[in-house]
TrEMBL record:
Family annotation (InterPro entries): M_m6A_EcoRV, MeTrfase_D12, SAM-dependent_MTases_sf
Species of provenance: Caproicibacterium argilliputei
Molecular function in Gene Ontology: S-adenosyl-L-methionine binding; sequence-specific DNA binding; site-specific DNA-methyltransferase (adenine-specific) activity
Organism lineage string: Bacteria, Bacillati, Bacillota, Clostridia, Eubacteriales
Protein name, entry field: DNA adenine methylase
Keyword terms, alphabetized: Methyltransferase, S-adenosyl-L-methionine, Transferase
Organism domain of life: Bacteria
Annotated residues for binding of S-adenosyl-L-methionine: 7, 11, 55, 207
């Protein structure tokens, strides 16, 4: 199934290739840089396999939590928010930027209330404040959802000027809510998340901000974070796959691991330059053909006839280059 949102760097076009190189077996699936969750939504959840969606952008994870757990309330807020216009877009952005109702704000308010009120009064007030904070999470999620829908390229920064009636997307939200029933939603930096979930049977799919396009996201991702990610993955007990833009820096960084070159149409560039291709790489710490090799011969033959055997996998040398070049 599809995600309920578009997201910069979303893997809608690449995910079919990505699944083909998933490991044969794993007991927990962890999507480290979740974004719109395109890869997660497109995979069939397996009974007994734990599934985790993570992103460091708290507006995004709040949206996923509200879609998953508070669907009715979320839809109610969406219905109430005014219709699409440039002014509304500005109001929504201000609301999101101010982050009026963060957890930090809530604990400060609770502390003040406790200090100034008698214990019974504080108990009453506490309940009210917690209730309000919950509501604001849904309000924040609804505002963020509209911001994504109304903005150019789903970048949340400039108004797209395209008519959009969010009510027409309600069915997508219901579908997503059902799909996420057993998914754990986390809001952590990748390093903490990977260390927390790493086991022998874990499989991490990592789709970090691409090299030299880091500024497209609200969460700051530094050049040193690419190295930090590689180092974190290097010491992993489980299996992992990373997708990146194809460039010398990334090939060198991941030299010694399996690297596959893939090309797909670039959505944004395509609007202006029909058919513009974008070279990417998929990197793994396990033999990417293990799934295919375990398939019955007939299936292999079928895949071969469909041209699947044209994939170019190789283990890169210490300079990230193909050994035969
Ligand atoms: C390329 S996008 C992921 C797109 C996603 N695969 C999809 O199909 O929609 C990268 C994501 O990484 C998130 N991110 C940035 N820094 C992060 C960090 N330190 N830890 C976890 N997530 C981070 C961004 O918020 C962004 O949503």
């Amino acid at each position: 199934m599809n995600s309920f949102i578009s997201w910069i760097g979303g893997k809608k076009a690449l995910r079919k290739i990505i699944y083909r190189f998933f490991p044969k077996d794993y007991g927990r699936y962890i999507e480290v840089f979740g974004g719109g969750g395109w890869v997660l939504f497109g995979r069939k959840p397996k009974r007994g396999t734990m599934e985790v969606y993570n992103d460091f952008n708290s507006n995004l994870t709040n949206l996923f939590c509200c879609v998953k757990n508070r669907t009715w309330e979320f839809l109610r807020y969406l219905g109430f928010l005014p219709l699409n216009s440039r002014d509304e877009f500005r109001v929504l952005r201000k609301f999101i930027e101010k982050e009026e109702f963060t957890q930090e704000y809530l604990s400060e308010e609770l502390e003040l209330a406790q200090h100034n009120l008698s214990p019974p009064e504080f108990e009453d007030m506490r309940e009210l404040m917690l209730e309000n904070a919950k509501k604001s999470d849904v309000r924040r999620a609804a505002a963020f959802y509209k911001l994504i829908r109304y903005s150019y390229g789903s970048g949340c920064t400039s108004y797209s000027c395209q008519p959009c009636d969010v009510r027409k997307t309600f069915f997508l939200i219901w579908e997503a809510s059902r799909r996420l029933t057993d998914t754990v939603v986390e809001n952590k930096d990748f390093e903490a998340l990977i260390r927390q979930y790493d086991r022998d049977n874990a499989f991490f799919y990592c789709d970090p901000p691409y090299y030299e396009t880091e500024g497209h996201y609200a969460v700051v991702f530094r050049k040193s974070d690419h190295v930090r990610l590689r180092d974190t993955l290097k010491s992993c007990r489980g299996k992992w796959m990373v997708s990146y833009n194809d460039c010398e820096y990334i090939r060198n960084l991941y030299a010694g691991f399996y690297i596959l070159s893939v090309t797909r149409l670039n959505n944004l560039a395509q609007r202006y330059d029909g058919g513009c291709e974008y070279p990417e790489v998929i990197i793994t710490n396990y033999d990417p053909k293990e799934r295919r090799n375990s398939e019955p011969m007939q299936l292999n033959l079928f895949n071969y006839e469909n041209g699947d055997d044209e994939d170019e996998w190789y283990r890169a040398d210490e300079m990230g280059q193909r050994p035969d070049l």
